[in-house]
Write a structure and sequence with these properties.
Blueprint: H1 7-22, H2 54-57, H3 64-115, H4 122-138, H5 154-191, H6 204-226, H7 236-261, H8 265-315
Helix pairs in contact: 3-4, 3-5, 3-8, 4-5, 5-8, 6-7, 7-8
């Protein structure tokens, strides 16, 4: 009876054959009972080891596309990191330079205001207000952003200087409104009843030029009074005195010109002295308020100069003295 090759037998035979293919062996003759076994010489089966896979054969073989790709990614990361480090630093240096210019202009405006005849001088006060506005404008943008875990460097100086600039601008703003109003009233007071040079006696050909000069003075005074802030109670007394003076001005001009036509020198002298007294009265009503504003501004200037020096130190300019 023939044997049936079942799958189990086939698998078993393949296993045996595989072992014979991969394992060298020696064959010996069957032993004869009672005699020495003679070893047969080694049989050459022409056996060679099976080649290993490429990944196992050598660990020094690299996948160059992966290596090159990794290098490119690394270089890209370094360049991006360097960009985000250098860009905020350059922007910070530019910002600090802008801070320095704004602070210098602000300090110069304070110097001009102190060297003027008074702190509420319209021109000097106007320069101070413009410099204070520029100070706040330059401090408006936030500091440059930096990546986490990167040294702040100049960006930290920008943050500190910007904070001090804002404090400085706030201090200037605390008096800015009063100073602007005072400067406006100071300018108005210089135009209202700005009495021209008036003769006490004059020939007929000089009376008309005197009348023209007085008419220009009246028009200028009325225009300046119109520009005054009617809602500021601090200057209410001054506005009332100006309104009263301007109400009586046309009648005064008529009497004065009549005195000139009649060649009445004493009356003309009296009328001119009366007009100067009226002007002095209006100025007295405003000088008190302007003096209070100037006292407050003088006290604030000391604080502002201290703040300027703090900003300069943070920027690295040292003292500006």
């Amino acid at each position: 009876m023939s044997r049936v090759n079942t799958p189990e037998r086939v698998a078993f035979r393949r296993t045996i054959l595989s072992m014979l293919e991969t394992t060298p062996a020696t064959a010996a003759r069957p032993g004869v009972p009672g005699a020495l076994e003679e070893l047969l010489p080694d049989l050459d089966f022409d056996w060679q080891p099976r080649p290993l896979g490429a990944a196992v054969a050598s660990r020094r073989q690299y996948r160059w596309p992966i290596v090159i790709g990794a290098l490119l990614v690394g270089v890209t990361v370094l360049l991006v990191a360097r960009f985000f480090v250098l860009l905020p630093a350059d922007e910070a240096e530019e910002r600090l330079a802008g801070y320095a210019l704004a602070v210098d202009d602000f300090a110069s405006a304070i110097d001009a205001m102190e060297s003027a005849a008074n702190l509420t001088d319209p021109v000097a006060a106007g320069q101070f207000l413009e410099a204070a506005d520029a100070l706040r404008e330059v401090a408006r943008p936030g500091p440059p952003g930096i990546l986490p875990f990167i040294p702040a460097g100049p960006v930290a100086d920008v943050r500190s200087a910007r904070h001090r600039l804002i404090v400085l601008a706030d201090a200037a703003d605390s008096i800015a409104e009063r100073l602007a109003t005072a400067a406006r009233y100071r300018a108005a007071s210089q135009e209202i009843l700005d009495i021209p040079l008036l003769p006490f006696t004059a020939p007929l050909e000089l009376i008309d030029p005197a009348a023209k000069a007085l008419a220009e003075m009246q028009a200028t005074s009325e225009a300046a009074a119109t520009d005054l802030d009617d809602e500021d109670e601090e200057y209410a007394a001054y506005r009332e005195s100006v309104d009263a003076a301007l109400a009586t001005l046309p009648a005064w001009i008529d009497r004065y010109l009549l005195a000139l036509r009649r060649d009445n020198g004493p009356t003309a002298i009296t009328l001119v002295a009366q007009l100067h007294a009226t002007r002095d009265g209006t100025l007295a009503a405003v000088e008190g308020v302007l003096g209070e504003v100037e006292t407050e501004a003088a006290a604030l200037i000391t604080e502002l100069r201290r703040g300027i020096e703090e900003v300069r130190i943070v920027i690295g300019l040292g003292s500006g003295e």
